[in-house]
From TrEMBL:
InterPro entries: YHYH_dom (IPR025924)
Protein name: YHYH protein
Short name of any one Pfam family annotated for the protein: YHYH
Region of interest: Disordered: 305-328
YHYH domain location: 153-242
Biased composition (Basic and acidic residues): 316-328
Organism classification: Bacteria, Pseudomonadati, Pseudomonadota, Alphaproteobacteria, Sphingomonadales
Organism of origin: Erythrobacter crassostreae
Length: 328
């Protein structure tokens, strides 16, 4: 699946002026087709969930009530506590989205984001997953991709919260190609990137049809670079895998929220902190470092399709045993 420009992206925020944080040497030469920055194998993140307090390398989750969703069967790419991204099957198809749009416009205090959660720069796989698709034996995602109608505000000058905030289900940020970013967990509270079958750009739809990523996806512009690849809804930027000289970050380089102090200048605005994408779980955010504007989560809820798609995950489906999980 080629990454190509097919729709509209507007970011009225200027250009990254440059920033350099502390990095240590890690090889960034291997990038798989489905998981940006992956090595031959990665540790599965199952069980690395905290509901009491944030921890480095964990998802600080707002809920401990996980469903029986997720992938239908364990894939052969999962063995001995590790997963092998290059062996993982992907959902077939190349569906283009010419109606995709993504806009960011900043004023002094806030940034207004308008998006429909369709990727502006790449096609997606075909969802629902067809029975004839080899991916179906592992993951029966019945959800079609549907355009959303999101308009939300994030801080233009984000501030640090008095204590880190937990991550809810659903959208915790967005990428520069207009795709929603979810946390690293599937509906069963397991490592979504390891277990769930996604398309070649590491995306898939939720029960409301929102196309999203759970990790650093190979089709995100700048994903392998020291560049902004998205924003968390607390207003802090999310940076790519590289520290600027072909070196990738790992969990040991980052704090409990999966970020670090870094000076970034954009259009006269100065950021002092950024989240980082890593090849290893939890991939993007571990918790929120900043304060979310009042009303942002409501704006997200109001912008999603009002009904779950019939037969979609968490909708009109029976609860399944652990080896037949569905997804978020």
């Amino acid at each position: 699946m080629a990454c190509k420009s097919i729709a509209r992206t507007t970011i009225a925020l200027g250009i990254l002026a440059g920033s350099h944080g502390h990095v240590v040497a890690h090889d960034l030469s291997s990038v798989s087709a489905q998981h940006a920055g992956s090595d031959a194998s990665l540790p599965v993140g199952d069980g690395r969930v905290s509901t009491d307090a944030p921890q480095t390398g964990y998802v600080y989750s707002c809920t401990s009530d996980f469903r029986t969703g997720g992938a239908r069967h364990y894939g052969e790419w999962l063995r001995q506590g590790r997963w092998f991204p290059d062996e993982k099957v992907v959902v077939s198809g190349e569906k283009s989205w010419p109606e995709a749009y993504f806009e960011m416009v900043a004023d002094k205090s806030s940034i207004t984001v308008k998006m429909n959660s369709l990727p502006t720069n790449h096609p997606t796989g075909t969802f629902p997953i067809a029975r004839s698709d080899p991916a179906y034996q592992y993951d029966t995602n019945p959800n079609p991709i549907a355009a959303q109608a999101l308009e939300l505000m994030i801080p233009a000058q984000p501030s640090f919260a008095s204590e880190p905030g937990c991550l809810r289900r659903g959208m915790i940020g967005f990428t520069v190609n207009g795709v929603a970013l979810y946390n690293a967990l599937d509906d069963a509270g397991l490592d979504a990137a390891a277990h769930e079958v996604q398309d070649a750009c590491a995306g898939h739809p939720s029960g409301r049809g929102q196309y999203h990523y759970h990790a650093g996806a190979p089709c995100i512009p700048g994903i392998k670079e020291n560049a902004i690849i998205g924003w968390a809804i607390d207003g802090f930027p999310i940076m790519g895998l590289s520290g600027g000289e072909g070196q990738a970050f790992t969990n040991s380089d980052l704090d409990e929220c999966h970020g670090h102090a870094q000076q970034i200048a954009i259009d006269g605005r100065n950021y002092s902190y950024a989240y980082r994408v890593t090849a290893e779980y939890p991939y993007t955010l571990g918790c929120y470092k900043g304060t979310i504007l009042r009303g942002t989560n409501r704006q997200i809820r109001e912008g999603l399709n009002t009904r779950r798609i019939r037969g979609a995950a968490g909708g009109n489906r029976e609860r399944q045993p652990r080896d037949q999980r569905r997804r978020d």
